[in-house]
Amino acid sequence: MLNGLFRLNAIREMCSRAPLVMTEDLLRDLAQYKNYRERSVMMAAKSLIHVYRSSMPHLLHKKDRVIFFLYKLYYILYYLNMVMLIYFLGETYRSIIGNCGKKIW
After folding, report:
1. In a domain, 79, yes or no
2. 83 within some domain
3. Domain for residue 24, yes or no?
4. Would the pLDDT of 102 be above 60?
5. DSSP category for residue 59
6. Nearest to 28 by CA among 63, 1, 4
7. Is residue 105 a part of any domain in this protein?
8. Burial class (CB in 10 A: 0-12, 13-18, 19+), 80
């Protein structure tokens, strides 16, 4: 199946440059190789799925496209928590400096 691996990787490269090359039926057929017993073929199919998660997730099966949304949601929530933490620390620092009343210089 080594030949099939090279074919899947070549298809992935073509699809990463021009995602409209793939039809929905063909993509679903190729995505079924993610359950194949050879690890190299399985990883090539998963990388093809990942290409379409970021560019055209509506072509994928529902269970394949939901994970990308959860990753995005995680990073958005992580970013918002960091922004709120920085804002809180900044306000705390300003209140400490403002209540001090002394000039250091």
Report:
1. yes
2. yes
3. yes
4. no
5. G
6. 63
7. no
8. exposed
Question: How far is it, in rounded angstroms, from Cα 76 to Cα 80?
Answer: 6
- Its pTM stands at 0.59
Q: Domain of residue 22: give its range.
A: 2-100
- Chain-centroid distance, C-alpha 67: 8
- What amino acid occupies position 23? T
Cβ atoms < 10 Å from Cβ of 27: 23
Residue type, 87: Y
Dig out the tokens for 25 from the structure.
């039926």
Cα-based torsion angle of the residue sequence 70, 75, 77, 79 in order, rounded to the nearest 10 degrees: -170
> For residue 4, which amino acid is it?
G
pLDDT at residue 6, as a whole number? 74
Model confidence over 31-88: pLDDT tens digits? 899 999 988 889 999 999 988 887 888 888 888 876 666 667 777 777 777 777 666 6
Domain count, the chain: 1
Q: Helices in 32-104 by DSSP H: which ranges? A: 39-55, 62-100
Q: How many Å apart are CA 53 and CA 36, to the nearest integer?
A: 20
